[in-house]
Structure formats: C-alpha cells, structure tokens
C-alpha cells in the first residue's frame, strides 16, 4: 500500500465495504489512524492484547499488500481454522501462511485490485455488514480510542519514576501529522505504537526485523528526504549507543528540527525481559553503564537535554524542536515501571 502510494484507495475501499482496518507490523502509517474504521496496529504484543479481538473474530480477512508476518498474524494464528482469507500482493511468491480451500491469493497491484473488487461489489447486491456487526464495530472503535489516548498526571506509579504514558500525552499534543517518526527496536517502542497516531502515509520509518541502531540514521535520512518536516527518532539507550556517532553527520549537515528521544534504562530492556521470563534470576549480558546522552550531544555540536521528570519533558521537546540544530533528549526511565500493554492484556 505504501510502496504503491494507494492509501487513498485503501480508505475508499474500506469505506465502501464498511469494515474495520488494522495496519500490519511496522506499517502503521498505511491507513489514517484517526479514521472511524481504524482499530489499531498489529505488533509484538498483539497476540495477548484485547485490541486484536476484531481480527480474531473476523469471518473474512482481506490482507492487502502484506506478506502476513509473525506479528501481523498474531504468531501465525490468523487465519484461524474456519476463517476465510483473501491476500492481495504483487507476487504470488510472497504469499505467506498455509494454503487452504478457503484462502484466495491474488497476485496483483494492490491499488488496481481494490478498484476492481470495489466495482464488482457496487454491481452486486452487497449491503455491508449486519446491524449487529456494525454496532460491534462502533464499540470496538470506542474501545480503541479509549485505550490508546494517553493520560497525564496519573498517580500510584513508582515513586520518583517518570510516567511514560504522560510523556506520550505531551508528544501527541506537541507533534503534528507531518512529522517523520523513526523507531529503533526495543520495549520502549510499545508506548509509541500504543499512543502515537499516524494520519499521513510515509511518516513512519522502522525496521520489520527488529534491527537496533536504526532510529538516528533513519531520522537523518527522513530529514534529508523531507526537509520541510521535523524528524523525531525514538530509541532506547542500547540501540541509540550503537549509532550515536551519526550525530556528527546531522551536525555537519546543519539539520534543524531533528530530535532524538532516548529512553535510558541502563540495559537492553527487551532481552532482559525475555531472560527474566524464561530464566528467572539468571540475566546475562543485558546491563549497561550509565551514559549521559545529553552531554554526548553537546560534545558533538548538537543540543542535549536531560529529563528527570514529566514536568521537564514538554519544555525540553519544544526547545529541541526550535534549537536550530540537531538535538537529543535523554529521558531517565525506571525498569520498575509497568510495560505499555500490561493494563489491557
């Protein structure tokens, strides 16, 4: 969809058949997130997440321009036995999953396929989903909005710890739809997926493979490709440290309104979480020393900000966007805080 620039056709197609839309893993900007038919993104935690309920309950899954990867199929549980599947992609060789009698694979351009199917539906007696399903769809959308709208000023958190939901409350209220968002691999990204809304195509950039060190170089590339729009990189301390030397590149190119937000918890968070789950008390090689990324940014000729409270963050973000040079915001994160999806599993 994104590669073919057919987001507008996807919107028209979804409105024609009046069905909910979920975006595939790391393709969060393929459909406007503020649309009434949008029900969220598919990601690493979707398998155990109630926001994926519409996909699990679907009679028919229409997969447009996706290879049906592990996360987009809820650990390959979709299509489930009895679920019908229509998969549309450029090449039949890219068809994923297991084939069955009720699975139809169409090797075609996604945009052209949606036009042809739409014409056929208009010529048929198709009247859309039943009233019961339409009511269910409206309820699903209300739940999606309620669970993905960040709140500020929460209480009952770990004493002295920064509330990451509150951080995203500020992010979504400060950044606009034109910002290029790049995302590294790591647990911090769950907060971005849950709370940020992409309403324009080609505004999200992230690896599907979980590669670390991606965010800063990608933000530099996005800024060069879209010079009129701010670029904001999201990274953990482990991933950012892998490519932080590219700050020199950003400074040398005099890139303004380029900001890196680093969630600094002094460890490889995702790997540490997996080790704690599978081998309690036996974490190996996941702890990191304390790095002051604000000082590193200043040393490279960029602007650095150290954030130690929720109150400091919106001031730092607004200042970083207007700094006139690349900027880094180092946020001190506690590893004792709950995860981004812990309250809605």
UniProtKB/TrEMBL annotation:
GO aspect biological process, one term:
L-valine biosynthetic process
Which CDD domains does this entry report, sorted A to Z?
TPP_enzymes
Checking Gene3D superfamilies in the record gives:
3.40.50.970, TPP-binding domain
Q: Per its UniProt record, what Pfam families does this chain match?
A: TPP_enzyme_C, TPP_enzyme_M
Quick check: keyword Glycoprotein in the entry? no
**Its Gene Ontology molecular function terms?**
acetolactate synthase activity; flavin adenine dinucleotide binding; magnesium ion binding; thiamine pyrophosphate binding
The Thiamine pyrophosphate enzyme TPP-binding domain is annotated at: 184-331
Q: Which UniProt keywords apply?
A: Thiamine pyrophosphate
Annotated ranges, domain Thiamine pyrophosphate enzyme central: 2-114
Cellular component GO terms held in the UniProt record: acetolactate synthase complex
PANTHER family per record: ACETOLACTATE SYNTHASE LARGE SUBUNIT, THIAMINE PYROPHOSPHATE ENZYMES
Q: Which family does it belong to?
A: Belongs to the TPP enzyme family.
Q: What is this protein called?
A: Thiamine pyrophosphate enzyme TPP-binding domain-containing protein
């Amino acid at each position: 969809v994104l590669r073919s620039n057919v987001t507008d056709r996807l919107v028209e197609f979804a409105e024609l058949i009046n069905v909910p839309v979920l975006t595939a893993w790391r393709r969060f900007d393929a459909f406007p997130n503020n649309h009434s038919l949008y029900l969220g993104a598919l990601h690493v935690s979707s398998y155990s997440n109630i926001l994926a309920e519409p996909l699990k309950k679907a009679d028919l899954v229409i997969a447009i321009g996706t290879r049906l990867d592990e996360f987009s199929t809820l650990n390959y549980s979709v299509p489930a036995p009895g679920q019908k599947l229509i998969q549309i992609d450029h090449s039949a060789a890219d068809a994923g999953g297991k084939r069955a009698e009720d699975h139809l694979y169409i090797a075609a351009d996604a945009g052209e396929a949606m036009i042809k199917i739409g014409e056929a539906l208009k010529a048929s007696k198709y009247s859309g989903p039943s009233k019961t399903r339409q009511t269910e769809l409206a309820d699903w959308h209300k739940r999606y909005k309620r669970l993905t709208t960040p709140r500020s000023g929460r209480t009952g958190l770990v004493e002295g710890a920064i509330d990451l939901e509150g951080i995203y409350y500020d992010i979504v209220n400060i950044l606009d739809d034109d910002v290029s968002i790049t995302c590294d691999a790591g647990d911090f990204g769950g907060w971005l997926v849950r709370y940020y809304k992409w309403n324009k195509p080609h505004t999200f950039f992230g690896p599907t493979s979980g590669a670390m060190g991606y965010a800063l170089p990608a933000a530099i590339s996005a800024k060069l490709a879209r010079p009129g729009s701010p670029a904001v990189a999201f990274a953990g301390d482990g991933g950012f440290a892998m490519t932080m030397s590219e700050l020199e590149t950003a400074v040398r190119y005099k890139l303004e309104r380029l900001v890196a937000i680093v969630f600094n918890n002094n460890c490889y968070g995702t790997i540490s979480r997996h080790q704690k789950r599978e081998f309690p008390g036996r974490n190996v090689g996941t702890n990191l020393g304390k790095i002051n990324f604000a000082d590193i940014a200043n040393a490279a000729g960029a602007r650095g900000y150290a954030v130690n409270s929720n109150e400091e963050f919106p001031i730092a973000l607004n200042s970083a966007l207007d700094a006139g040079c690349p900027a880094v915001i180092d946020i001190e994160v506690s590893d004792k805080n709950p995860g981004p999806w812990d309250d809605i599993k």
